[in-house]
Amino acid sequence: MWGAQVGKAESARPAVKIRRAKAGDLEEYAENVQSVADEGRYTFTERVTQERKKSMGKLFGDKGCLAIVAEVGEDGRRKLVGGLAMTRYGDAEKSKHVRVLGMLVVDGYREMGIGTELMEYALRWARAKKGVGKVTLGVFSKNRRALRLYEKFGFKVEGVRKRHYYIVGEPEDEIDMALFVK
Ligand SMILES: CC(C)(COP(=O)(O)OP(=O)(O)OC[C@H]1O[C@@H](n2cnc3c(N)ncnc32)[C@H](O)[C@@H]1OP(=O)(O)O)[C@@H](O)C(=O)NCCC(=O)NCCS
User: Residue whose CA is closest, atom 30 of ligand 1?
Assistant: First the structure.
């Protein structure tokens, strides 16, 4: 699906395609996760290890989960600038309806509506996917942009882990949020 280029911020934005991640995306997807990790303030990931890459590869092939990318550019010069994953919450039968959401848009492509498009795609999938009932996520309390995005889509706060992380030397809470999709 190619996103429409409408609205003020989006007028300067390249056309974006949101699509399922495929095996050939793995390296670039992992690089994007690492680039956001290197910013140090948005995710608890610090290093994308080989093990993490392996589980990303598995995720791409798991029909019960979701991995999507935001791609810009023309054939031959395409580039991934964002991604969203919905992974399982462990492997217990009791919580098999839960998916854990993580997402990112790389620096330079934020606040152009790409995160919104990724989320729209992901929630359409979750609502249509048999067996998926609840989507959860964790976000740092000072990440106003991400919090606003999640609130916009109806996610509600389920709990707060006080001073759970130190981000650039400052204590920060983790906000746990969830959305019931059925
Ligand atoms: C959080 C993130 C995924 C949002 O994606 P994005 O493409 O930048 O977001 P969008 O342009 O679609 O904007 C989504 C909403 O964020 C909010 N927003 C945008 N800019 C904002 C700002 N400067 N301050 C506060 N809220 C802001 C708005 O509510 C906006 O929706 P609206 O324009 O319809 O009101 C992206 O900024 C990002 O990857 N940031 C770094 C990594 C990260 O924080 N990942 C999430 C970890 S939990």
Answer: 149
